[in-house]
Amino acid sequence: MLREAKKMGAKVYVCSMMASAAGLKKEDFDPALVDDVVGVTTFLEMAKGGQVLFI
C-alpha cells in the first residue's frame, strides 16, 4: 500500500517519538519508502493544506 502511494507522489514520514520509543533511527528505514523521520510540529507544518493519512 505504501509503495503504491509513493508511486503516486505521496510522502511517507515516520514519527520521531515512536521511532525513538522503538529504538529505531532514520537509517533503519528503507529510504525508498520513508522520506524522513520528523517530530509532530514539523509534520503538521509540512502537511498544512494537504491530505493526511495516519497508519
What features would you describe in this structure?
The protein is an alpha+beta fold and 55 residues long. It has one domain. It has three helices and two strands, in the order αβαβα. It has helices at residues 2-7, 16-21, 40-47, and strands at residues 13-15, 36-38. The protein has a two-stranded parallel ribbon. The model has no long low-confidence stretch (mean pLDDT 92).
Layout of SSEs?
Blueprint: H1 2-7, E1 13-15, H2 16-21, E2 36-38, H3 40-47
Parallel strand pairs: 1-2
Entry summary:
With 55 residues, the protein is of the alpha+beta class. The chain has helices at 2-7, 16-21, 40-47, and strands spanning 13-15, 36-38. It has one domain (2-47).
Main attributes of the structure:
36% helix; alpha+beta; 11% strand; 55 residues; two-stranded parallel sheet
Label the overall shape.
globular
Estimate the mean pLDDT confidence. 92
Query: How many distinct helices?
Result: 3
Strand content: 5-15%
The first-to-last residue Cα distance is 11 Å
> Any idea how many domains?
1
Strand ordering within the main sheet: 1-2
Question: How many β-strand stretches?
Answer: 2
Radius of gyration from the alpha-carbon trace, in angstroms: 11 Å
Major beta sheet, specifics? 2 strands, parallel
Helix/strand-derived category reads alpha+beta
Model regions low in confidence, pLDDT < 50 over at least 5 residues: none
Task: Please write the string of helix (H) and strand (E) elements.
Answer: HEHEH
Helix residue percentage: 25-40%
